[in-house]
Amino acid sequence: MAARRDNILVVGGGSRIATSLAPLLGERARFVSRRPSGLPREIAVENYDMLSQQMFDGIEYVVNCVGVSSGDAALMQRVNVDIPLALARTARAAGTRRIIHISSFSVYGGAGLIDERTPTRPTSDYGRSKLAADIRLLALADDRFAVTALRLPLIYAPESLGKLGRLLKLWTRMRVLPVPAADVSRAMISADLTASVVARLCEDFRPGVCFAADPMPFTYVQAAAARSETLFRLPLPAVATHAAERVAPAIAARLFADSHLSDADNLAIGYGLSSQLYRDIANAALH
């Protein structure tokens, strides 16, 4: 019997990553969504944690894009931990060989440099839920079922840039932004580049904990250079940024903190994928 062509099941079809995966995976993929999103070969379900084993028939890869980054601890436990575990257990029982789970750098808390040796120290309910899912999913791996926890930094949609877009809108409106005198080096990744990494993982699978980010980290100097507007930086001395970290740690973490992924551990670089960050910053409609 010939192998099925549609051997990849993407769960969380309404996510921006899934939208980017559709053209890359083509007829190899089916998509499971709670609300129809117009993707090809889409299956609408009421709940992600109640998929039948039959839905995994002939599936070699499951890609889990289900997750939330806001809400209370109970919601994050259900969506970020319980649902991925239910998916993985059902997939494994059905004979699926591999699952790729979208995880987060949030498992490392405020670590400035991230590589395979960085200790996990989540500081938020979101980070704790993602770490709990990673640990429990990886524990399911055996010689018949392989698990990849793909840990990613801030994910943005190229058309809006998300949180990054809000920062850049503020900057273009004010023209001047207070930034650390030493600048920052912060890992980010677009949904499109994430999809490219996942598509490559479906060809060149890497089990265990993996990492990906745009090959070029975000810096204020390069962001200003990418925009057509004239944007200025107001360099803040270290004492000022340290004061901001004490008074408004959440804001300071977004504006001033480093979060750099080691090139040696970056799958985007390993797969030879090109940077998209500054192209997306240059092309973003911020007005």
UniProtKB/TrEMBL annotation:
Residues 8-166 form the NAD-dependent epimerase/dehydratase domain. It holds the Pfam family Epimerase. Gene3D superfamilies: NAD(P)-binding Rossmann-like Domain (3.40.50.720). InterPro entries: ComplexI_NDUFA9_subunit (IPR051207), Epimerase_deHydtase (IPR001509), NAD(P)-bd_dom_sf (IPR036291). GO terms for molecular function: protein-containing complex binding. This is NAD-dependent epimerase/dehydratase domain-containing protein.
